[in-house]
Specification:
heterodimer, A: 276 residues, B: six-stranded mixed β-sheet, five-stranded mixed β-sheet, 15 strands, globular
Amino acid sequence: MSAAARPGLSPVAWLLVGVGAAIMVAPLLWTLALSLKSNSELMRDTASAFGGPYTLENYRAILQGSVLRWLLNSFIVSLGTTLGVLVLCSLAGYAFARLEFPGRRALFVVVLLGLAIPEQAVILPRHQLFADLGLHNSYAGLILPGLTGSFGVFFMTQYFRAIPRDLDEAAMLDGASRFTVFRKVLLPLTLPAQATLGVFTFLGSWNDYWWPLISATRSERFTLTIGLASAQMNYAQTSGLGFLMAQAVFASIPILIVYVIFQKQIVQAMAGTASR
Amino acid sequence: VKRLAVLALLAGLVAGCGSRDPRTEVDVQRFFGECGAAYGRQTDLSKAEGECGIVTTLLNRFGAENRDVRVDVNIVAWPGYPQLSAQMAAGDPPDLVTMHQSVIADYQSRGLLEPMDAILAQAGVRPEDFTPAGRRGVTKDGRLYGLPWDTVGGLFHVNTRLFAEAGLMQGSKPVLPRSADELLAHARQFKARTGRPYLIQSQVNDPATHVRNLYSYLLAQDAVFFEDRKHIRLRTPEARRIVALFRALNAEGLSTTDQDNPAAIASFMNGQGGVFPTGTWMIGSFDESARTPGRPLYRSYAVFPYPRLFGRPAAFVDGHAWVMPKRERSPEQLRAIARLLGFVARHNLDWSRTGHLPAFQSVVESEAFRALPHRADIAPLAVFGAPLPDYVQRQAPIEGMVGEELAAAVSGQKPIDRALADAERRVNELLAQTG
């Protein structure tokens, strides 16, 4: 439906939407305002954030630490995880949707069961396994756990299932191998799903805190979330509130950029319409 | 050309291997935040301020004075115990770690820490020189499991201008209560004359506030509330007396009730109440405010240990310590660690500028320490301050549970007896799971 044809919202609806938007935006603006005030001033009165003087001192303090290293680590880990998830989930999704092999249904059920198991339930054996393999404090150690995404496999399987089999058969009649059919015919059709899965995987990996906290225990392998937490003083919420808020703003900037670029896919996924 | 390039690469690799750092490496892991921007190259301790600034400068200074030792500092997110546990599980813990004295039992009881009697002796540190509070904090099963660095505890931060307005000053000294009844009387008088609450308390999302009050005044009554390592006992007349007092203060509007820690700090700094019971770590901020003309606290700040309301002077304290996780170390590394421990111990006065009390009696008694603002008034805390018994594990989660129940009791949401019974049950269930 085009924008012109879309029925207009009633004034009441506009009001409700406006109030909702204000409720959503207010904490973000408050965070931004606090980040631009000095810590000592905020310790006396946070209401001082409503007026000047404002300062970039908190942002300067962030940039003078190891933050660029942590930013790079977060990019490497998030991109590595995202690429890995897309490759593995596409292959697995195709296999579950199209290939007949013994135990396929049982294996798919096992994958689905993975959706019900929280990370905390497996974190101890996983930590021990990675310790035995010497993978802690390495990029591999941070990326590998993120690749085992049951949701991604399920998501891609459902997407492949929705693509008519006629396309596969036509390509195979033309002499295409099964892998060629996957790579050249079906994979391009799944790009919207891949974009959605990729965005969510990237966001999840970027914001991950618990696993990097216990796997990356050395500063040179900290991701941004862990690095920023380590930079906080013990009483950050009282004597370093401005710095704390500046960290929150700084950490959210890359995510904001990702959101702006992939806004369409994210909204589609949220609306449950991420289909062809 | 290709062969030459390969040879050059190999030569470079061999040269790289040959230039390995010959210094003895010591892995230090600490909390207190990161402040490399301000103190990354600072070695002059007189120019360092705050926990982060002082610890960073201290380690820089050690590195500058000990060129044969490379101190590799890893700064972890507060409080650093998930990371430390993970490192221990992976078999790669650091050489020296900052640890709260209340947490030592959790690791020591599982055999994860080295006893440090020998290395402290090698460092020239004598346990007889520790303050009573510091020594109690690191002694487990009769052995030393850490170098105590300070004593941290609750204090009565006082607004003397409002105290004067309330008629509660004697000369230049605030008059603090000497019994529970006197506390209530002072608080009522204060409110009647100033219109403000006597106590500013951080009671929202801050279990430590309630636990400090309870533990301190239980110790003052010589109550044995951890009978053994598996049981807490809170359904006692001593505990009921304390909770009833703080419930009465809330019920009569003599204390703030709806503030979290940042709000309570702001409230005290803006002169909205008489006494703010909070930790040693706030002295610096409040003192700075008291020295700044125009601020509500200007020339109106004093600080003392918790007043003696019951029994004898006593206060529950914790502290920071340097501990050594169990791991293989070379004799050179042990010597380097001993030097670092000795260095840290000798600079205990510098650390006490954070507001925390020194862990060495000679520093507590020194002129230099007593010349620091308010330190002479709070020094007794280093003597009568006491931690929980050395066998009590899981003190952090216990604080959370007891604090939640106490918050419910003093706010009137739960009857006192039920809250104490619930706290006792929850803690005992937790302690039953400990080894």
